[in-house]
Write a structure and sequence with these properties.
This protein is 29% helix and 19% strand. By secondary structure, the chain is α/β, with parallel strands linked by helices. The chain has a seven-stranded parallel β-sheet. A five-stranded antiparallel β-sheet has the order 11-8-14-13-12. Strands 9-10 form a two-stranded antiparallel sheet. Helix 3 runs parallel beside helix 4 and helix 4 packs parallel to helix 5. The structure holds 2-acetamido-2-deoxy-beta-D-glucopyranose (4 copies). One 2-acetamido-2-deoxy-beta-D-glucopyranose (NAG) binds next to loops. Keywords: Glycoprotein, Glycosidase, Hydrolase, Lysosome, Signal. Involved in the degradation of asparagine-linked glycoproteins. Hydrolyze of N-acetyl-beta-D-glucosamine (1-4)N-acetylglucosamine chitobiose core from the reducing end of the bond, it requires prior cleavage by glycosylasparaginase. It comes from Vombatus ursinus (Common wombat). This is Di-N-acetylchitobiase.
């Protein structure tokens, strides 16, 4: 879900721990069915209806889900701690709740390891009465490497196993904003799309690799976002298998220099071969942006080329060094949806 290097490292460390356990028990025991945590046992049944339109939400824990607009949501990917209350509530609204899946790719080159990993995910999903899995692997892969083939196989085998074992279940895969080896993720995108229910396209963190001037730009510039979708469609990926991911956060950059026309030069922080990246900035939530924008130095501004809002502000302690910060806001969601590229 997030391409930030720091988060990725943390997630990998955690997954390692799980996998070592998996190795000790390559064929997990069928889970003793946990008692249904919901008031009505019917709410423990996986959701079976198919949808024409997906509204897929990543939930990172806490109780924010209580304020979601549940009339819209079709699937919640549970990236936080398992919350049975969330599961029961989502099922009462006919929404799916899916697991997060991640695994070090060098480990899944071996087919028996893939099999053990899939069995473990299935056991967990069943035990928690969940409706599928969202595979979020953001690791580097070279084209035609053993990992390249193993990843496509992993997605295919996971989908087959989940569809077979949990009726109506959903298997999805998170991809970068463009299929063109973003962050050295050279995957078999068309093969993966074919092998799962749909791709979740992360149309954000689009400055993870800055190849031109090291200047702050929007989390998801409009043109860049569309170019990404066009590239997926050119690979003959079924448009129905592309779900657009919209960010609810922005980036806050410290500018080395802020020109009069609001061009913010950022420090060089390389990422996966690119000289500069959004890792020079800090992710800020939508809420924090909304609280700050009106009292900022510039107020809300609009970058016409990127079709994205932004603002500049100044940190008082640093004023004498003339250091400014620029927070790149997210799109106004309403505008984004109405302007979204809707493939035929
Ligand atoms: C991608 O995966 C599909 C499905 O497994 C396969 O048919 C195709 O040959 C693969 N493409 C490449 C370039 O490896
Ligand atoms: C830094 O910003 C100032 C003020 O707008 C501008 O005159 C100058 O050209 C900028 N310097 C660089 C290196 O971009
Ligand atoms: C910020 O300003 C806009 C435009 O003037 C206004 O609509 C909005 O309510 C203000 N937000 C806050 C939090 O004050
Ligand atoms: C985006 O597209 C518009 C219209 O085609 C064009 O005017 C603008 O320069 C483009 N922006 C970028 C960053 O390419």
């Amino acid at each position: 879900m997030s391409g930030r290097p720091a988060l990725g490292g943390l997630a990998r460390a955690w997954v390692w721990a799980l996998l070592l356990l998996g190795l000790c028990a390559p064929s997990p025991q069928p889970a003793p069915a946990d008692p249904c945590p919901c008031e009505e046992s019917a709410l423990c049944r996986p959701v079976r209806d198919s949808r024409d339109f997906e509204v897929f939400v990543f939930d990172v824990g806490g109780k924010a889900w209580k304020s979601y607009d549940w009339s819209q949501i079709t699937t919640v990917a549970a990236f936080g701690k398992y919350d049975p209350e969330l599961l029961c509530f989502a099922h009462s609204k006919g929404s799916r709740v899916v697991l997060k899946g991640d695994v070090p790719l060098k480990n899944i080159v071996e087919p028996t390891f893939r099999e053990a990993w899939i069995a473990k995910q299935l056991t967990l999903a069943k035990k928690q009465y969940m409706d599928g899995i969202n595979i979020d692997i953001e690791q580097e892969v070279e084209e035609s490497s053993p990992e390249y083939y193993a990843l496509t196989a992993l997605v295919k085998e996971t989908t087959e196993a989940f569809h077979r074992e949990i009726e109506g279940s959903q298997v999805t895969f998170d991809v970068a904003w463009s299929p063109k080896c973003i962050d050295k993720r050279c995957y078999n995108y068309s093969g993966i799309a074919e092998s799962c229910d749909f791709l979740f396209v992360m149309s954000y963190d689009e400055q993870s690799q800055i190849w031109t001037e090291c200047i702050a730009a929007a989390n998801a510039p409009y043109n860049q976002t569309l170019i990404g979708y066009e590239s997926y469609l050119k690979m003959n990926i079924d448009p129905k298998k592309l779900v657009m991911g919209v960010p609810w956060y922005g980036y806050d950059y410290h500018c080395l220099n802020l020109s009069e026309d609001h061009v913010c030069t950022i420090p060089k922080v390389p990422f996966r071969g690119a000289p500069c990246s959004d890792a020079a900035g800090r992710q800020v939530t939508y809420k924090a942006i909304m609280q700050q924008v009106n009292s900022s130095l510039s107020g809300s501004q609009w970058n016409a080329q990127q079709q994205a809002p932004y603002y500049n502000y100044k940190v008082s302690g640093l004023e004498k060094f003339c250091n400014y910060l620029v927070a790149e806001q997210l799109y106004h969601p309403q505008k984004y949806y109405s302007a979204a590229y809707l493939p035929q």
